Every structure is written in C-alpha cells, then in structure tokens.
Amino acid sequence: MPKGDKGEGILTLVASPIGNDLDFSPRARSVIEGADLIAAEDTRRFLALCSREKMSVKGKIFSYYDQVEKGKAAKIVDEVLSGAKAVLISDAGMPVINDPGYVVVNEAIKRGAKVTCVPGPCAAVTALILSGFRADKFCFEGFVPRKEGERKREFEKLRSEERTAIFYESAKRLEGSLKGMEEILGPNRRICIARELTKEHEEVLRLTLGQAAGLKGIMGEIALVVEGCPPRKGEAADFVEEAERMAREGARLKDAVKEIAKREGVSAHELYEKVQESRRGK
Ligand code: SAM
C-alpha cells in the first residue's frame, strides 16, 4: 500500500450524510481526497458517494464492516504507523456509533497511532435535539434489543432513568416496541419518533406512549427518543420504613414496594433488596 507523502500517518474517522448529501462537509472531501487508504463499510455505497460528490479518490479502497473489523484493524494501524493517511467511513452518519470503527480506534490508541475525526451527522444526536426533551444529560442505547426478554429488561431500566434516552429502531419493529414500552412505563411517558431525518420526508412526532399506541404504518429510518422520568425525590433506601409499615398494615411486601417505586420514581428491585437487607441486619 502507498505511504503518506509527508509527515506522520493518521487515521481519520469521517462522518457521512444520513440522508441529505448537502451535509457532506468540505473537510470530509478534502481528507478523503488526500487519503492513501480508505476503509469503507460498503465500498459500493462509498463509490456512489464519490461519484455524487465528484471526488477524485487516489487511495486504495477496501471494505471494512463489523465482521471483518478484527482482522483488518491491525493492518490499518500498521499502515498508519508507517506514515499512511487512512480514512474510515461508514454507510451513513458517524463511524463507531452502531457502525464499524470501535476496534480500529482502540488498536490505534493501544499502539500510539494518531487518530482524529471529521464529525458530522448522527441520527441519535439529531433526534435528541429535535425531541425538545432535556439534552443536558442523555444516554444512547443503540438498537432496541430484538429479543423480547432483553427488550423488557432494557425498558425496565427506563422506569427510573432521569436522562433522556435515545434508541435506534427499525420501522417493522417499532409498533411492538412502543407497545412493550407502554406496558412498562405507562401511557404518560413522552416520546419522540424521529423518522427520515434530513431527508425530504423528515417527520418528528412528539407523543405520549398512550397516544403512540394507535400509530400504524410508520416507515423509514427511525430514531426513538424517550423522555427521562421526573427527578427522584429520594433513594430507594429512604422508603424501607414506609414499605415495612405498609407490610405491617397488611399489604404484600411486593405490592407495597411496587406502589412506592411507581410513586417515587425509585427502582422497585432496589427497594425490595433494601428491605431484605434491612431485615437481614436485624
Ligand atoms: N452511524 C449512524 C449514525 O451516526 O447515526 C447510525 C448507523 S445505524 C447502523 C443505522 C440506524 O440509525 C437506522 O436503522 C436508524 O435507526 C438510525 N438512522 C440512520 N439514519 C437515520 C435518519 N435519517 N433518520 C432517522 N434515523 C436514522
């Protein structure tokens, strides 16, 4: 493979549009045109981008997707360490964010190779800022798990999650996920369905889970944003006495814990454990 013509080698993670070619940045173009090698998630899609953008690419192009990351990352870093300018680009958005890149970034860090990024569109961040929900603290959860049990566990965590949460979801699973979410978080939790962001048919729906229950036929690429729960009034441990009192007054401990957890926005599991801990300590 050719080496960088001068100076130090570098690996650059380059963002690409998530639906609107006008979001491709001049700096992304310049870095791609100056690269010695380009690792592209899908080489055909990358070549289509080059052709739409009329880029003259001189570097070697090769495919770099999740299944081959482990095998190819070390070779990319070898090249960078011997002076090559390498680019990593995924099909859409920021590399690494539910896209290839994590392995090579870590390989580069481990071996002291220089890494930088040409930032750009990211569906998660775009959906977050359009949702109108708090963006000072948020968490990105990636794709909603496909398996029912895992999905349930993921949504259970949101009961007491105060930060805004962002998911990626496919259109065909959206209805099921919204239903599952409503069963766990109730009809009043607010969500935002951001679909086809930056594209001609961009649509941002801001609803409660109850309102979303009737939605049918949502198509396209989707990012789902869930508003955090109201700030907790206390920690689970603060409600042990109250749970014990309710139990003494005849409630089943599990019901008492559930009721308090729902009202106070604390984790039912944590509160139950705290009660058991306190009983063991007596
Ligand atoms: N790396 C990308 C990024 O920075 O956003 C994400 C790649 S992930 C494999 C693809 C998922 O992102 C899609 O299935 C969809 O959930 C979400 N997504 C991508 N483009 C989108 C768009 N234009 N509008 C809404 N969601 C989008």
Q: Care to count the β-strands?
A: 10
Spatial sequence of strands, sheet with the most strands: 3-2-4-1-5
* The number of domains: 3
**CATH class placement of the largest domain:** Alpha Beta
Q: State the CATH topology of the largest domain.
A: Cobalt-precorrin-4 Transmethylase, domain 1
What would CATH call the homologous superfamily of the largest domain? Tetrapyrrole methylase, N-terminal domain
Put simply, the count of helices is 11
Identify the quaternary structure here: single chain
Strand content: 15-25%
Q: What is the H/E string?
A: EHEHEHEHEHEHEHEEHEHHH
Distance between the termini: 70 Å
Q: Low-confidence spans: pLDDT under 50, at least 5 residues? A: 1-5
Largest sheet: 5 strands, parallel
Rg for CA atoms: 24 Å
Shape: elongated
Structural class: alpha/beta
CATH architecture label name of the largest domain: 3-Layer(aba) Sandwich
Description:
There is one protein chain. The chain is α/β, with parallel strands linked by helices. The protein has helices at about 25-35, 45-55, 70-80, 100-110, 125-130, 150-160, 170-185, 210, 240-250, 255-265, 270-280; strands at about 10-15, 35-40, 60-65, 85-90, 115-120, 140-145, 165-170, 190-195, 205-210, 220-225. The chain has 3 domains: about 10-120, Cobalt-precorrin-4 Transmethylase, domain 1, CATH 3.40.1010.10; about 125-225, 2-Layer Sandwich (Methyltransferase, Cobalt-precorrin-4 Transmethylase, Domain 2); about 235-280. Strands 3-2-4-1-5 form a 5-stranded parallel β-sheet, sandwiched between helices. Strands 6-7-10-8-9 form a 5-stranded mixed β-sheet. A hairpin with a 7-residue loop joins strand 8 and strand 9 (about 205-210). Helix 3 packs parallel to helix 4 and helix 9 packs across helix 11. The longest helix has 15 residues, at about 170-185. Residues about 1-5 have low confidence and may be disordered. S-adenosylmethionine binds near residues 90 and 223.
